């Protein structure tokens, strides 16, 4: 079962429990159909089902990086995103959970995927539960998720779920892939339901480095958000350190 | 009154328009020709003179300490320009407040203010060149703290005859007098330039100084949150309403009589320039404050700045860089001064809310301090034999704040 391929799909009505969970899929697959996208979709559907069963309706948005490739490259050299890339960044900023899925090229994650991450604010995904997934042409690339995606999301201070998903051609014929998808989706759903990531980000926010007026949901954007009790702010107001 | 300042063109409810340059050199992509440093320095002087002749209000120079930029010593070059110009205000964009000793800045810019007869203000900032810190013996990890502490000291050096001071980044001062005292004992007006740091905007607001956002190389209105932050804090510190805060904006322009000629002429310079390589000119024109087009197009885009940021006091354009030949740069200055700015002056004045202040000038600051009285002219006390003037450096120094320094051996 897959979710509809509509990139801004399917807001599910809110129930009394609160706002729907916002799940965002990032796929760096570039073919159509793409196994990278397929892996992400199957996982997203499983996560939605689990969250629904737990009384947490969930909306899904998909960011297909292929269509953003030129804007991502432009942003790398210009230092700022184009309009569609900015919309994707804002979507990610508001995500309660992320499924990141990339093909393996030349023994590593897709350069397009890495370039996309390179233009994100460092604090965009602090505490956000992330499910890591990759596809490859051979099972010999199985460690790429843990060796490359996991440290990347560690740098972003995201919360990668314990189970990494990897699918080589053989895996698509095996029911164990479905089991692993279910396990990883369960971990993601439990993390989201616990609220631990959001709680971590909210509670420890001031301990991370931020850029004023950045894209992160908690970013300082006005006087009301700024802490004036820091050493630097005292120095700015004529005081000493 | 003892000071003279030809200031006749600037009337109430007008704002200041000018140009700012980093004095960059690059090969001309259409000819391959690279200006020598000697040529670029001479050309900067010609550009400043032309800006003065066509009625622009400000020429600002951005301090750099590395090739391919020539302005390592803005006070020297600006002093020369001051001698060759009549009305234009000289400024910086920026003066590095991090790696320069604030004591030397106080002296250099006070001297420049004197020789320029008050046609001087300056913009302090951190700059964007990482290795400058070690070149001048500073630690970049302390960049913001250096900027804040150094300005706090500079502020006092220009306002107190005798300064006792201790901070984290330089030796303490005991009984120090920065000479010469500012012209008419009125310090140059200071702008604080920052593109991302609320602490810098906070310092500008605390002192009631100006805040400048370079407004280039970033999406349209990217700097609005910081400008709004500065306005709110300016009001918080009691300097006036948030609309009265002194805001300056940059911008980048290339002008031709016909729009398509501007784009065609500018495109190779944009596309070959290192920081724009791989970027799309059309995207930059649409998404950033860069204006490339007819005078009317530049006017229309600049008017959006007033709409988006609120009424502001100073608009500077970057238009002499990117390897443009000096003849083209001079023509840009001329088109800006004759075709664009006169219209902008009138349009922006017409749209301006009543009561919004002008950018301070030396004349307005002198009037604010002294009214119709004569400005103070500090006269030193005599050398007491050890190259010091004793406890009171000037005949009229405040007797309540005498200098205390170690006795000479």
Protein model, in words:
The complex is a heterodimer of chains A (241) and B (409). Helices cover 39% and strands 15% of the residues of chain A. Chain A is of the alpha/beta class. Chain A has a single domain (21-203), classed as Rossmann fold. In chain A, α1 (35-53) crosses α6 (175-194) and α2 crosses α4 (111-118). Chain A is globular and about 70 Å long. The model of chain A is unreliable at 1-16 (pLDDT under 50). Chain B has 409 residues and is of the alpha/beta class. Chain B has a nine-stranded parallel sheet with strand order 3-2-1-13-10-9-8-5-4, with helices on one face. The radius of gyration of chain B is 22 Å and the shape is globular. Chain B starts with 15 loop residues before the first strand and ends in a 39-residue tail after the last helix. The relative contact order of chain B is 0.15. Classes of the chains: A alpha/beta (241), B alpha/beta (409). The interface between A and B is medium-sized, with 26 and 37 residues.
């Amino acid at each position: 079962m897959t979710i509809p391929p509509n990139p801004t799909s399917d807001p599910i009505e809110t129930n009394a429990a609160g706002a729907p969970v916002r799940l965002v899929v990032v796929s760096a697959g570039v073919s159509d159909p793409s196994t990278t996208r397929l892996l992400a979709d199957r996982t997203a559907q499983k996560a939605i089902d689990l969250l629904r069963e737990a009384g947490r309706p969930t909306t899904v948005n998909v960011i297909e990086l292929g269509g953003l490739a030129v804007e991502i490259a432009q942003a790398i050299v210009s230092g700022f995103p184009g309009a569609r890339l900015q919309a994707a960044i804002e979507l990610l900023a508001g995500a309660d959970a992320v499924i990141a899925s990339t093909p393996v090229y030349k023994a590593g994650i897709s350069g397009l995927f890495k370039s996309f991450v390179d233009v994100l604010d460092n604090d965009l995904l602090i505490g956000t539960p992330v499910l890591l997934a990759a596809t490859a042409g051979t099972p010999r690339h199985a460690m790429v998720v843990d060796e490359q995606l996991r440290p990347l999301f560690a740098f972003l201070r995201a919360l990668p779920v314990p189970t990494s998903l990897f699918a080589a051609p053989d895996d698509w014929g095996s029911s164990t892939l479905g089991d692993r998808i279910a396990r990883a989706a369960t971990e993601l759903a439990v993390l989201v339901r616990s609220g631990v990531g959001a709680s971590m980000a909210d509670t420890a926010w001031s301990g991370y480095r931020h850029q004023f007026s950045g894209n992160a949901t908690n970013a300082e954007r006005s006087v009301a958000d700024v802490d004036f009790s820091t050493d630097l702010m005292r120095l700015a107001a004529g005081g000493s350190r | 009154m003892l000071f003279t300042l030809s200031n006749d063109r600037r009337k109430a409810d007008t704002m200041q328009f000018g140009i700012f340059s980093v004095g960059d050199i690059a090969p001309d992509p259409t000819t391959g020709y690279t200006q020598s440093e000697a040529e670029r320095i001479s050309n900067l002087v010609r550009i400043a003179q032309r800006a003065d002749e066509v009625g622009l209000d400000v020429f600002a120079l951005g301090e750099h300490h590395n090739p391919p930029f020539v302005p390592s010593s803005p006070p020297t070059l600006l002093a020369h320009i001051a001698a060759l110009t009549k009305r234009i205000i000289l400024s910086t964009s920026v003066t590095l407040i991090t790696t320069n000793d604030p004591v030397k800045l106080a002296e250099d810019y006070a001297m420049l203010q004197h020789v320029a007869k008050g046609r001087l203000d300056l913009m302090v900032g951190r700059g964007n060149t990482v290795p400058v810190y070690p070149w001048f013996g500073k630690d970049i990890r302390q960049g913001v703290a250096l900027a804040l502490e150094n300005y706090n000291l500079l502020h006092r050096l220009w306002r107190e005859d005798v300064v006792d001071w201790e901070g984290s980044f330089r030796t303490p001062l005991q009984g120090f007098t920065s000479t010469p005292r500012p012209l008419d004992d009125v310090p140059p007006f200071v702008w604080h330039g920052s593109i991302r740091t609320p602490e810098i905007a906070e310092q500008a607001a605390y002192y009631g100084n100006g805040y400048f956002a370079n407004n280039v190389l970033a999406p349209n209105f990217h700097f609005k949150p910081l400008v709004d932050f500065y306005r709110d804090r300016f009001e918080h510190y009691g300097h006036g309403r948030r609309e009265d805060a002194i805001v300056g904006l940059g911008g980048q322009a290339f002008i031709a009589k016909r729009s398509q000629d501007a784009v065609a002429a500018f495109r190779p310079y944009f596309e070959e320039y290192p920081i724009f390589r791989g970027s799309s000119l059309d995207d930059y024109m649409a998404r950033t404050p860069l204006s490339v087009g007819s005078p009317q197009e530049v006017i229309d885009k600049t008017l959006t700045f007033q709409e988006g940021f609120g009424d502001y006091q100073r608009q500077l354009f970057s238009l002499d860089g990117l390897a443009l030949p000096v003849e083209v740069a001079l023509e840009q200055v001329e088109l800006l001064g004759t075709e664009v700015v006169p219209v902008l002056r009138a349009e922006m004045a017409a749209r301006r809310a009543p009561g919004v202040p002008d950018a301070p000038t030396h004349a307005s600051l002198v009037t604010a301090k002294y009214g119709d009285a004569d400005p103070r002219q500090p006269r030193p006390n005599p050398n007491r034999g050890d190259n010091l003037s004793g406890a009171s450096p000037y005949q009229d120094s405040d007797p309540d704040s005498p200098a205390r320094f170690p006795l000479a051996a």
